[in-house]
Description:
Number of helices: 12
Strand content: 15-25%
InterPro entries: FAD/NAD-bd_sf, FAD/NAD-binding_dom, NDH-2
Structural class: alpha/beta
Family: Belongs to the NADH dehydrogenase family.
EC number: 1.6.5.9
Keywords: FAD, Flavoprotein, NAD, Oxidoreductase
Distance between the termini: 41 Å
Strand order of the largest sheet: 7-6-5-2-1-8-18
Bound molecules: flavin-adenine dinucleotide
Catalytic activity: a ubiquinone + NADH + H(+) = a ubiquinol + NAD(+); a quinone + NADH + H(+) = a quinol + NAD(+)
Amino acid sequence: MDPDKKTIVVLGSGWASTSFLKDIDTKYYNLIVISPRNYFLFTPLLPSSTVGTVDLKSIIEPIRFTSRHKTRDIKVYEAECTRIDPENKTVMIKDVPSNKVKESERSVSYDYLVLGVGARNSTFGVQGVDRYGCFLKEAKDARKIHNRLMACVENAALPGQSPEEIKRLLHMVIVGGGATGIEYAAELHDFLIDDLRTWYPELADKVKISLVEALPSVLPQFSQKLIKYTEGNFRKQDITIHTKTMVKEVREKELVVKAPDDSIETIPYGLLVWATGNTTTPLVNDLIQKFPETQTHKKGLVVDDWMRLKGCEDIYAFGDATATRYAPTGQVASQQGKYLARYFKQLYIRQALEEQLKKGLGEKEKEKVEKKFERVKEIKPFHYSHHGSLW
Ligand SMILES: Cc1cc2nc3c(=O)[nH]c(=O)nc-3n(C[C@H](O)[C@H](O)[C@H](O)COP(=O)(O)OP(=O)(O)OC[C@H]3O[C@@H](n4cnc5c(N)ncnc54)[C@H](O)[C@@H]3O)c2cc1C
């Protein structure tokens, strides 16, 4: 750490923060990365890792690998940020449970804070989701789904199981008809119906996949053409879509739902994957409350086109933690990360030239510096360029 340089603290090691880290020039700043996971996770291949098509290890990259390739040292702390103190420019961090020796909180100071903490799964307050359902966001979720999936199939293969129990165990339910839910239903189909047929021929025809969605159609944010294509494909693959169906409660072995005709029904299941979208993390909620006049969005942090947090000029935020006009995708987050790295380089150069101009320079030198300053004075806002959908 160079005491003459400003320190940027980066929260998170996801799409936004990792792309920022890869591009930031450490010549200009000290860098500290704080994240409860010390690796980047390539989320588009997470569904495939639940069924073993790809190995989890092949879709993660250690943050220390990224930091090792920088020209100057970056500090990496595997910890969770629990609080931000914008007045004193510090963050409080806590060890992750697996590393915890004893309860300990530490404070880390910053000149600039870059926040890329993403979002967490939304349960809409439905009881039992956390306890009995599986999310699909982190590596540990993929491991849990894989274990449950295989337990369901192996239990169904045990001798003496009743036909009802086999039916329940082999009923895989996905809640949420967004991109993640749809992708996962298709992935499960390929694995259970196609791949498993060789290993469990007696069970393959008994597997059933259902998708539950509260809205009138799946993929509401996509085009009608894609919706029709998906529905047609699912029909062919015998994946049942229950639209206008609201989950009211999740029990250990069954879901309680309100059907389109308002009747209450129960759906027995073996595996339940909950993919109903995102909500803000506790850290983001806490920060929103600190700026009641400028942070007025419930879906995330409000930032300007330079990713500066509205209401606090030393804090920047990007990715799923923010509420912007862009979709919450890795594609957006990684472009924002790249942009912010360029932004900070220009900011440094601009500030350095400003300092020079404050000093008494000779006429010729002053003219030269002023010209350079003109070139970097205006920092262009972020512009998203869509390169197609990975979904
Ligand atoms: C299954 C799945 C498939 C997807 N497929 C695609 C796809 O094909 N294409 C696409 O563009 N997008 C896809 N996405 C969406 C994409 O993953 C997200 O939009 C993207 O991860 C958002 O990036 P982020 O950096 O904002 O957050 P994340 O990538 O979620 O990273 C957040 C980081 O913050 C850390 N963190 C959390 N809390 C704290 C804290 N308190 N202190 C410090 N660190 C913290 C987390 O550990 C993590 O490292 C998919 C998502 C999922 C779940």
